[in-house]
Amino acid sequence: MANLRHCRPQESVTLLDDVSNSLCHIADAAELVRNVHPDEAYVAHASSAVQEIAGYMSEVNLDASVYQCMKDAEAEASRDSEGLSLEARTVLHHMRVSMEHEGIHLAQAEKQACIEMLDAEQQLAFDIVQRQEQARQRISSGTDGAWIPVSALGNLSLDQWRLKERSGRHGREVHVPRDTFLADRILKVVPCGEARRQMHEAQQSRDSAAEEMMVQLLAVRQQLAKIRGYPSWAHYAQREALFQSPDKVKHFLEATWEQLRPGFLAELRVLADEKEALGQGSILEPWDVPFLLHRCKEKRQEADQISTYLTYGSLMAGVELVLSRLLGLAFVQEDPDPGEVWHPSVQKFALRDAERTIGILYLDPFPRPGKKVQSAQFTLQGSKMLADGQLQVPKTCLVYALPPGSQCLSTSFAVTFMHEIGHAVHSLLSETHFQHLSGTRGTIDFVEFPSHLFEHFVLDPDCLATYASHSTTGARLPQNLRDAHCHRPFGHFEAVQQLTYALVDQAFYSFHPSPEKDLQTHLHSMLGSFEQGLDGPSNASLLELLGLSTATARFDHLVHYGGSYYCYLFNRALSAHVWQQSFRPDPFNRETGERLHSLLRGGSVVQTLDVIRDLCPGDPAFDAHEVPLDAMMA
Ligand SMILES: [Zn+2]
Questions:
Q1: Residue 221: which pLDDT band, with cuts at 50, 70 and 90?
Q2: Which terminus of the chain has a lower count of CB atoms within 10 Å, N or C?
Q3: How far, in Å, from the CA of 420 to the mean position of ligand 1?
């Protein structure tokens, strides 16, 4: 790094990316190991490696000479616009701005304050998530909850929960803590409306300690946003995103709600009819919703029948087809070298273009004690041009907890499987010169597009029928099940759920905490139109019905996504549109495949809607907030 001062801009970017590449090799592998390795000693060493690298990175991020070299290189490159490729300029700019976000360019006192805020932000985020996780598992001894008669709980297993007991008016009662998995389970499966009402109300009562932590986190993030030159954290979250401003996100969410509303109300009426059929009246209460939804989904026999076509083997046949027919690549299983993988069940695949290996995929499909993630993608090596003129081959790992053998998967499990495959393929097909913005190393609303597009390889019935076969007979998906698979059950409801989460996220990050202002008052004023009656089979507002009216304290997505949660609903709409325009008529068309390949080849260097819209030649242009919604509604 000492040589950096004497470098030309191209050499500077290359050198910085080389260093970052070496560090990522260790940190990325360690991150995977600490999440999946069966040996505790490996996990412990991996955790300390992750911390050591993170510590070193934060030192480098505060190195004034590195920063000065970046600025000089950027200035020199702007004088000589021919000299540096678009990617090199983008990477250089991105690296410099990232350093400024850590406070490198500030005067000493401000820089110190910035460092303290960054530490506080990390600590608060960790504490909040930890607290919620412990509440769910009931490791902590929170006292808020509801006394529920044991007779109402049917055959729900209570053994592992060590609940407090008392004898009450209705016989033996147990105290169920409000934020546990058990509480959620009760809301889903217990027929007794009164027990569910009590559980729901306990969950909705305000948790002032948790709320206080969320407000502290918000205050720190708002200060950081201000230091970084943005009016609010919501604006900061949009700095490289497709919408560019929180106003446009708001526009998108409001327009989408208007479109979703009729279908959503129709689905609520289905739930209300179910309630009436049970002899419990026909007005939906918030504590009825999870129960009736679960019940209606369980009653759909087609869901079970479709599931018999969704095995791990079936889905892998689909992946093979996507890679070979659509993308023209070979997908070959290889024997891992001794010590290369962390468990015998891990499979290794090479992705080949003619004779050239262009990517390596590790698949760790099945559950195992000690595995800390359910479905996730880990990048192990990004694409990069090496000094010898060879491309560094991207390596990525997918981790799941699929039922082993030829057991059947639910549709939602299968969709998640293909979603993660989409992330992996984006990573593996990347051919960037620098690893800094390779594959999925981009802004969340852009990188969630390929994964959402891939979901349609499962969601589209005709496409699914080309590869899915019955778990025992091997038969293809019959027409009646294809017809049933056309409609996503309670699809509007799911979309509205994503929408309300996004609304709360946006409203939350537009609040600037101060002693005179109350978060809940702010949220009520921002979300006012969603708190009015629904004009449907319920007297509750949308937010009440979905259990979100006081939910800021329970909603850990606010911590993780910080103003970007809308990206799921947005990509649901965008991917449905692109699928309908370009993939639906012929999902494995080679020309379409070439266009997709060229999008993915670019990694995350050019993160614009235009490069996505190139998948639909001749399609009229639109801005992110005006994404066509028809395909998602269908
Ligand atoms: Zn994703």
A1: very high
A2: C
A3: 6
CATH architecture of 210-283+490-626: Orthogonal Bundle (1.10)
Element (H, E) at 350: strand 347-353
Distance 451 CA to ligand 1 centre (A): 6
pLDDT confidence of residue 230: 94
Centroid of ligand 1 to alpha carbon of 449 (angstroms):
8
How sure is the predictor about 143, in pLDDT bands with cuts at 50, 70 and 90?
Answer: low
- Lowest mean pLDDT of 243-252, 511-520, 526-535, name the range: 526-535
Q: Compute the distance from residue 175 Cα to the ligand 1 centre, in Å.
A: 37
DSSP for residue 322: I
Alpha carbon distance 443, 240 (integer Å)? 7
How far is residue 490's CA from residue 299's CA, in Å, rounded to a whole number? 13
pLDDT band at 234 (very low <50, low <70, confident <90, very high): very high
CA 473 to chain centre: 35
Spell out where 404-554 has E strands: none
Q: How far is the CA of 506 from the centre of ligand 1 (A)?
A: 20
Q: How far is the CA of 456 from the centre of ligand 1 (A)?
A: 14
Q: How far, in Å, are 169, 171, 550 from residue 202 at the CA level?
A: 19, 20, 12
Q: Compute, in angstroms, the gap from residue 419 CA to the centroid of ligand 1.
A: 6
Q: What's the gap in Å between 569 CA and the centre of ligand 1?
A: 12
- The two three-digit tokens of residue 95, written as one number: 């690296």
Instruction: Please state the ipTM of this predicted complex.
Output: 0.99
Three-class SS of residue 466?
Answer: helix
- CB-based neighbours (< 5 A) of ligand 1, an ion: 451
325 Cα–ligand 1 center, Å = 24
Distance 392 CA to ligand 1 centre (A): 24
Given the DSSP bridges, would you call strands 171-177 and 145-149 parallel, antiparallel or unpaired? antiparallel
347-353 and 356-364 as β-strands: parallel, antiparallel, unpaired? Answer: antiparallel
Task: Report the separation in Å between the CA atom of 440 and the middle of ligand 1, taken as the mean of its atom positions.
Answer: 10
For the chain, the structural domain boundaries read 2-105, 145-204, 210-283+490-626, 306-445
Average pLDDT (254-281) is 94
Tell me, in angstroms, the distance from the centre of ligand 1 to residue 448's CA. Answer: 5
Residue 365 identity: P
Query: Domain spanning 2-105 has what CATH number?
Result: 1.20.1050
Q: Identify the pLDDT of residue 141.
A: 56
Query: Model confidence over 277-324: pLDDT tens digits?
Result: 999 999 999 999 999 999 998 888 888 899 999 999 999 999 999 999
Q: According to CATH, what is the number of the domain 306-445? A: 3.40.390.10
Alpha helices in 191-278 (DSSP H): 193-204, 208-227, 233-237, 246-277
Query: How much distance in Å is there from the Cα of 21 to the middle of ligand 1?
Result: 23
Contact residues for 478 (Cβ-Cβ < 8 A; gap 6+) = none
